[in-house]
From TrEMBL:
Membrane topology: Multi-pass membrane protein
Catalytic reaction equation(s): a ubiquinone + NADH + 5 H(+)(in) = a ubiquinol + NAD(+) + 4 H(+)(out)
One GO cellular component term noted in the UniProt record for this chain: membrane
Pfam families recorded: Oxidored_q2
Family statement: Belongs to the complex I subunit 4L family.
Chief place where the protein resides: membrane
GO molecular function: NADH dehydrogenase (ubiquinone) activity
Keywords for this protein: Membrane, Mitochondrion, NAD, Translocase, Transmembrane, Transmembrane helix
Record localization: Membrane
Protein name: NADH-ubiquinone oxidoreductase chain 4L
InterPro entries: NUOK/Mnh_C1-like
Protein's organism: Triops granarius
Membrane-crossing segments per the record: 12-29, 36-58, 64-89
């Protein structure tokens, strides 16, 4: 007897997680010259990974400690990205990568 871990309702959640990751990757590649858009697309990719990870761990019967650790790392990454964005906007005036002078930094 074969045990099926994924039922049909789970396929839609997996597809939704992959769509979130794909759309965030599209935003990352399309608006790569603005730091705010890059940071938001990275958060979108982390959201998609969180959805897929929570589905996988719930169907395999594992504990959710790794998901909590993953969320802590994502929150720390978001806080560091926001602080870097604020410092860049204060020093350079915008978040557009084309306006930065690398030799001046």
């Amino acid at each position: 007897m074969v045990i099926n871990f994924f039922d049909t309702s789970c396929y839609w959640l997996i597809l939704g997680g992959l769509i979130v990751i794909g759309s965030a990757l599209w935003v990352f590649l399309s608006f790569r010259f603005h730091l705010l858009a890059v940071l938001m697309s990275l958060e979108g990719m982390m959201l998609g990974q969180f959805i897929l990870l929570s589905i996988l761990l719930s169907h395999l019967g594992y504990e959710y400690y790794f998901i909590l650790f993953f969320l802590v790392v994502v929150v720390c990454e978001a806080a560091l990205g926001l602080s870097i964005l604020i410092s860049i906007v204060r020093t350079h005036g915008s978040d557009y990568f084309g306006s930065f002078n690398v030799l001046q930094c």
